[in-house]
Amino acid sequence: MNQTELSIHRFTLAVAWSISILITILVPAAYFFISYQHLRSELIVQSALSANDVTDLVKSNSALWRYEELRLSEMLEQRSKSSVAESRIIYDTNRAVIASNTSAVPLAHISQTHDIYDAGVVIASIEISRTLKPLLFGTLLVALCSAAIAAVIFFTLRTLPRRSIKKAFQALREKRKKYRSLHETMKEGMAEHRVTFGDDGELKSFIIIDANSSCADMFGCSRQELIGSNSLTQFGTSFREYLPELLQVFEHGNSTTFELALPGKGTFYMTTAYSQTPGIITTLFEDITERKKSELQIRRMAYSDQLTTLPNRTLLLDRLNQAVANATQNGITLAVFFLDLDRFKIFNDTMGRATGDQLLIEVGRRLQRQIRCSDTLARMGGDEFCFVATNPSKILNSTYIAQKFIDSMLTPFWIGSNKLHVSTSIGIAVFPDDGIDAETLIKNAELAMYSAKEAGRDMYNYYSPEMNQKAHIRMELENGLRNALERGEFFLEFQPIMNAENRTVAAAEALVRWNHPTRGRIPPNEFIPLAEETGLILPLGEWVLRTVCSNMKTWNDAGLPQIRLSVNVSSRQVEQQNFAQIVRNVLNATGANAAQLEIELTESCLVNHTSTNLAEVFDLRNLGISIAIDDFGTGYSSLGYIKTLPIDHIKIDRSFVTDISSNIQDQAIVEAIITMSQKLGIQNIAEGVETLEQLEFLQEQGCNEIQGYYFHRPLSVDALETLLRTQAELQAG
Amino acid sequence: MSKFTHLLLAVLILTCSIAYTSICHASDTIRINGSGNAIDMMNPLMNAYSKTHPDIRIMMGKPLGSSGAVKALLADALDVAVVSRDLKPEEAAQGAQLRKYGKTPLAIVTGKNVRRSGISTKELEEIYIGKTSTWQNGEKIRLILRPLAETDTHILRTLSPGMNDAITAAHARTGMIVAITDPDSYSTISKTPGSIGTTTMVSIISEKLPLTILSLNGVSPSLKSLASGAYPLAKEINFVTTAKTPQATLDFISFIFSAQGRAIAEKTGVLVTTDVAKGSKPH
Q: N or C end: fewer C-beta atoms under 10 angstroms in chain B?
């Protein structure tokens, strides 16, 4: 029990005793006094009344009144409280008893006397004595009750406050203990500083007077070393920088928070300073080093490309904006280079995504070696890179940089055991001529890149306003494509595939055409890639399949020759999860003969020839559907799939057929393809046959089927129907 | 004559006058008091005696009751006390001497408006207990009690054990009418409608009281029924004197005890039970 607790205890005890004693004594005393006065008053009245009665008796019998025993007795017996001992005695002037009642009054009693007069002379007196026993008994009861109440009050005043105080002090002690424990075990460092000022008001000292273990650990010293040392030197120069804020805390009693960095240790502390005790400042140090690192990491992640670690699009935009602002202010030029790897998709598709990713990393590294440290090279996504060259003083410089990039790709990349030849197409936009803001510059550089791609790839191209117009046209085309299917703007043409031996129609390849409402017929090479790019190829491909099957059913029902009808299927369609099921549904819905249906796949579709989707497509052969490889020889260089996949037809690409009459290499390739297919038991079809020489050469080599203008251009549905009918009639005739 | 001589003469004359008055009072005045009923008996006796002794002045004030009268006698405030009980030992010890004379029936009486001629002990008990509270005509029964110490109460208690208890119960009831003295009693009974109480035949006869006397258990209160013992309630009439009793008083007492006196007394309802010889001597 400490001194304060003891003092409070003594004080409450004294108060409790005083109040209890007062209650114990005063209440019964007051009761006795008041009751006594009341009794006294009652006796005064009683004696006066009795004296009056006796006086009346005296008046009626002045000589012998004193002997009227019965009357006097009756008078004396007449009293209000018969249960209380009371004596009434009439005395004569000699104090001799004239009459009395028989009640005996104990020693403790109260008496009241009243004179009895006859003709104004006192002839006797009546004395009424009443016992104080009931009053004393009542007083005793009141005293007992008061004592009981006083005891309760004493208990309440003494024990309860004492208990509360004890609890409060106990809680305080526990709190202090807990605080101390917390202080010692808390993760945050805590230090208390005593601040003193000189007479001139200048800071005199800033001394650490207490610090916990965490604080000592944070600053790499012991508590003993910390306590008593100068805070401004102990906590580093950064701490001194916040001295004005700390002194403000000291003056105003508020709090302040700041980040304290200890560069030498690479640590950061969130420091909160507050002052609750005059002259004392408490600082709490929370180690936020890890948080800072995380923030840095997050920032890095937010602004860099995860794959190549190059700056990403966001950071590039940020830097480009800064560069544009700087260029605007200083009147200098900027050049934005937009790079896209040529045919990267093929690498990705054929070699796998991991190889593609590794290639992108290597390309990023190689490009980075071509630039200055101060310039920004970013990966925009996919196989697109962007480079910002600040202040290329002459246009030549931009050309030089672009060429440098192109040249840097000449050396093949080794990804694992694969040697990959990569080229890039570059678009260049120059500030301020090609745009005055970052977004425009990037967009125009991209347009210029597309232009370079169209111009043959592996080259650079500067932006020109016409490119913008081209892009606009492309956008319009895309919008039109989205609505074309609903509007019924597509239609089919069929190019017959002839039997090389008997020159009859063996099959027909369905070719989709788009009749644009304003631009007329749009070439397939314009809208098919666009449809693939936008994903519209999926509904369009299904429409083609459904239309071909419907026509097949119609022609079969009409009794026309049952030729194969082949449908081109893009890799996007094959990648579709339920493509095989769609084919089945269409066959069921139209009632077409599956054995007449042929699906033409490009080599790129077969790259991942182990995929489940492709297996399902080849499973369609079980229905009778045949599979043909379109544009054979132009895509995937591996011929592994030929022996693993059950292919029905190989379509020799027109690029090999065109110069077949004069080009020995083409002749060799075509011969090889035909020979290979024959040995593998695969039928072959030559595409793009336009001349008799080409036909004869192919016939000589044993080509099975011929497709090309030499026989037929793509025909309308009606024209093909007529052709088939004619052929039927000829065969019948 | 000086002023002092005049004053001395006046004092002397006054003293002589007082002494003379005192001597005359002692010789010619008989102071009598006592029980109310007994006093009622005294009036015709006093009248008869005064005719033969005109010089004797008999003073008889408000009745003091037996005890008061004996007390006054012993205090020399009376010459003779007429009481309706025997002496108490302490009274005798102080020199009081009793001369028994006779007794008078203690009658149960009602007011004139009560149409009853008789009552039984049982009925009386029920009235005193409060069990019976109305007369037959519906009138409320108003019981006139006497003090517990009074002789009438003692006599009535002897009627039966039930009556003894009934009296105690009646006194315990609140709001009861209690007549202190005999005159108070018969006066209250006569004035109160539906009343019932007790008084002596002496008082009824001598005071010509307008009361209805009830027969008790079929026996009317009379000297004959009293003498025969048929009527159970009687109140004694005795004389108390002291050794100091003046001769004139003793003479008057002798008259009372004489045949003439006895005859007068019997006319007023007293059954004289003592003879001449006995009556002349105190017990």
A: N
